Amino acid sequence: MEIGMIGLGAMGQAMARNLVRAGHRVKAWNRSGGSIDGVTMVASPEEAFQGDAVLTMLSDDDVIRSVLLDSAVLSRARPGVVHIVMATISVSFARELVAQHAANGVAYISAPVLGRPDVAAAGELNVLAAGAPQAMEKVRPLFDAISKRVWDMGAEPPTANAAKVACNMMIAMAIEAMAEAVVLTESNGLPRAQFFDLILNTLFGSRSYQVYSANIAGNHYDPGFKASLGLKDLRLASEAAADTGRTLPMLAAVHDRMAETVAAGMGSRDWSAMADLTIGTR
């Protein structure tokens, strides 16, 4: 397939390399330039929309709006192209994107991913995809190149975005839960590494607990997913919750704690640094 890419951050670069490795022809546009072996860099987002599909991996709603909507790129897209937004965006903006793509006759899929840059590099992302079945089938080879599994979230793209912000909300809650558990156990003489050995081999053996318990046990928070981005995703979850008219008290608490983490100057550290604030080891 001829695939356009918009956005070459750590995740986008990993995806591009795996697409090239799978034999696809990749053209990419990046706001800050750069290059990747085997990828043809183009001068504008519009040029990325002239193939079979285009994958967008930009940081947030505002950037996507600026790059694609404000410049009316969709109106100049190649007929038949499928646009896949793989970034974590708000549910409300996903609804707007559905309407904008329909108005311009461009097929649209929301496909946010679960996985950090190392998982993306290994081609083992979990893709949460939602869109029209015909469009989904067309881009299946693209998903096969970058993921270990595609989770079909249905025909309505915003459903996938709701699932993604819910997943990130739960990861943040897990980080805070582990931090608060350490406060209880460590203050009573149990080393955190020993406590984590217990929970990982009994109650909580998932990847999120494995990855972030290691960060907390070693008290090292080198950025894999920055706290500033974690705060952004918790804000998206809070907005989605507000749209339901329901109150989610755990979400409110963990959002406030992540905001405190960023305010304390840890926005560029891994979002599990929130635990450092709770445990009080800084």
Automatic annotation (TrEMBL):
Domain 3-hydroxyisobutyrate dehydrogenase-like NAD-binding: 160-276
UniProt keyword annotation of DNA repair present: no
Name of this chain's protein: NAD(P)-dependent oxidoreductase
Active-site positions on this chain: K164
Domain 6-phosphogluconate dehydrogenase NADP-binding: 2-151
Source superkingdom: Bacteria
The UniProt record lists the keyword Oxidoreductase: yes
Record's keyword terms, sorted: NAD, Oxidoreductase
Database matches in SUPFAM superfamilies: 6-phosphogluconate dehydrogenase C-terminal domain-like, NAD(P)-binding Rossmann-fold domains
GO biological process: organic acid catabolic process
Stored Pfam families: NAD_binding_11, NAD_binding_2
InterPro entries attached to this UniProt entry: 3-OH-isobutyrate_DH-rel_CS, 6-PGluconate_DH-like_C_sf, 6PGD_dom2, 6PGDH_NADP-bd, HIBADH-like_NADP-bd, HIBADH-related, HIBADH-related_NP60_sf, NAD(P)-bd_dom_sf
GO MF terms, alphabetically ordered: NAD binding; NADP binding; oxidoreductase activity
